[in-house]
Structures
1.
Amino acid sequence: MRAKMRLMGFRGAAIKPLNEEAAAELGAELLGEAIVFGVGGLCLYLEYARQAGQARRREDEQAAALRELRERLDRLREELDAMAALATPITSQDTPPADLTTPS
């Protein structure tokens, strides 16, 4: 890495060691920012989980309502079929005989 830096024309600069007070201040600032970042990330995760749970509950409710409507539709179809089966013999009995319908 040093050779590559020298080939590119960069020279290393001497870095002065930090005094104890500056190091403690930078460490405290870094720790504070890490805590804020962690709390922010946790809030984002909790909000995502909350919204995902709400969406899942909403989908479950819609699926249950749809299932209930389908069951009701099936029951109504069965009732309609039963009524149609009962109505067919009645309508065939109500028709007058063929010889009475022709005018004389």
2.
Amino acid sequence: MDQIYAGAFLTISAARAGRADHGFLQPRNLKQCYGTLCRVRYRQSVEGEKLLGYIAANPLHVAFDDPIDPRGWTFQERLRSFRTLRFGVRQTVWQCSWGEKVDGGQDYVKRFAWSTEEFNPSKFTGAPTDRPYPYPLSDPNHKDQLDEVWDTWQTMVREYSSCTLGQSTDRLPAFAAIAEAFGRYLKLGPEQYYAGLWALDACMQLRWRRPKHAQKDWQCKERHGPTWSWASLDDAVKFDDQRLPMGTDTLELVHDECHMTWESPNFNDDLKNFPAWLQ
């Protein structure tokens, strides 16, 4: 399915629609969107510079808060699209790899921590425009850059894990397109992808946990992932502190051996036989 979005010239997103049979072209109530915005011009101490700020009469809500956003399957659809015209509850937003523009009101606020203001061809975003990682994975001189890539993966997992799915068995399949794109970016195959974790960075990615505000019924009713994987939970996950500065890891993976059974070796297949164990 992601090939449709990745191959499309433009994706039109009915972001304000909660279901497929809901419309998205209803009039907006601007007061409910942002309240009153007032421009305030003031001078900075630096000579010749002028700044322009805004004051809001009411709290501003982030535009990325539409009915479509908590849905798990739309996560990869959003990232895998070249360009998106998004009709939201509060704004109409244009999105592409070079940035975002809105139809008025507060500037669009990005939901995802890996988003950048300017196009960066060497950064992984999940979009079809991503170029392969430019350095060898074993190059110690660029370990900091590789750590940033792994941190981006963990951020994506964290964001996706907070989304909801109609079927808990879709936990991994609905994220498969992102995993496949990430594998292409780092030149890693599906045999190195362990149910939501990458073998090359397993010691860091095994440090996931449930946040303090997590739901009580967190285990999936239908098992679809090993217990050491975040995919085994029907709840949001987070990762412990990121890597230390200067590319220093706190753990070392001495040996890894994963035993799983797949129907065929690709990212879209779900695990078929359990238990799967990581040694």
